[in-house]
Amino acid sequence: MTEVLPARERIALAADLPLDEGLRLYERVAPHVGYAKVGLSLFVEHGPPAVAAFQRLGARIFLDLKLHDIPNTVELAAARAGALGVSLLTVHAAGGESMLRAAVKGAREGALAKGHAAPRVLAVTVLTSLSAEEVAAVGLPGTPEEAALRLARLAVGAGVDGLVCSPREAAAFRRELGPTPFLCTPGIRPAGAAAGDQSRAETPAFARRAGADLLVVGRPIHTAPEPLAAARAIAEEVSSA
Ligand SMILES: O=c1ccn([C@@H]2O[C@H](COP(=O)(O)O)[C@@H](O)[C@H]2O)c(=O)[nH]1
Question: Boundaries of each Orotidine 5'-phosphate decarboxylase domain copy (predicted)?
Answer without folding.
Answer: 10-234
